[in-house]
Every structure is written in structure tokens, then in C-alpha cells.
Amino acid sequence: MGENDVRTIEEMEVDVLEKVDTSITILPAKIQRFIHLYTTGQYTLVQLAELLEIHPNTCGNWLRQKEVKAIIFDMQESTHEMVGIQLKALSTKATAKLSRLVDSPIDGVALSAVKDILDRSGHKPKQQIQVDKTITTFEQKLKHIIDDVIEVEYYDSEDSE
């Protein structure tokens, strides 16, 4: 990532935190802590209730509050946006690295890079698996068995004569 990319991401994080901090400070401290823990995605509601020493139903009630929903939505949306920016910056770096790997003196590395580039640019070879399967019904199997038995009995009766 370039220096400008890092500064943009950091500025965005500051903006997000300021926005969230402004809206979250109107809530009681326990709900603020709940929101921060909840948005990490590391805890279930039962675990959050234990950590905050509250009843699990309280967590559910808090999640239904308009203000809490709005703050969580803003935090998740901002995080998603920041991650997108970071991934775009990394994709440029990854493309440059892949471009350098194409010229690798090691044939296996160069081949792998070429395949990745072709696959990602829409030139991936079609992969097909063809399965030929004949389905035999129970009736067909039974008829086959009966026909075999009749043939065996027919041959046995000719042999005995």
C-alpha cells in the first residue's frame, strides 16, 4: 500500500470512530460496552450477557433498540468500507507481484503465475466431468434374475434328457 492509501484508511478510521463515539455516548456505559463487544463478532449473546453480568434477554432487548441498531449498522458499514479500500490497495500490490513472478527463472513459479493470470482474466479451461450411469429399476433387475433362472433351468432340463 502506498503512503496515501495508509493515510486515507487511517483518516477514515478516525472519522468512523468519531461518528460512532458521538452517537454511542448518548447510551449508558454498559450498552456502549455491549455494542463494542458485539461488533467484534467474537461472542455469542449468552457470552456477552455473562461478561456484562446481565440476563441474556437484555442483550436481545438492546439489539431491538433503534439507536443500538443504527450504531451497529454504521459500525459494520464503515468497517466493510475500510476493508474494501484495504483490499483494493492490496490487489494492486498483488497484481504487481504476480507480474514479477511471470518472469521468474523458476519455470514452475512462472507457470503458476501465468495460469493464475489466465484463470482470473476469463481464460480458465473448462472443467467437465462426464458421468454415464444407467439406472436399472427394481423391476428390470427382477426380470433379469428370473430370465437367468429360467435359462439355467431350461439348460438343466435339456442336460438331464
Describe this structure in words.
77% of the residues lie in helices and 0% in strands. The protein has 7 helices and no strands. Helix 1 (3-24) runs antiparallel to helix 5, helix 3 (45-52) packs across helix 4 (56-63) and helix 5 (66-102) crosses helix 6 (107-120). The chain has one domain (3-120). The longest helix is centred in the middle third of the chain and has 37 residues, at 66-102. It is mostly helical and 161 residues long.
What is the number of strand segments?
A: 0
Number of helices: 7
Q: What ranges have pLDDT less than 50 throughout 5 or more consecutive residues?
A: none
Major β-sheet profile: none
State the distance separating the first and last CA atoms: 94 Å
Strand-residue fraction?
under 5%
Please provide the ordered H/E string of secondary-structure elements: HHHHHHH
Average pLDDT for all residues? 82
Helix content: over 70%
> Which class do the helix and strand fractions yield?
mainly alpha
Radius of gyration: 33 Å
What is the oligomer described by this structure? single chain
Apparent shape: flat
Instruction: Count up the domains.
Output: 1
Per-chain topology:
Blueprint: H1 3-24, H2 29-40, H3 45-52, H4 56-63, H5 66-102, H6 107-120, H7 138-160
Helix pairs in contact: 1-5, 3-4, 5-6
Question: Brief description of this entry?
Answer:
The protein has 161 residues and is mainly α. It contains seven helices and no strands. Helix 3 packs across helix 4 (56-63) and helix 5 packs across helix 6.
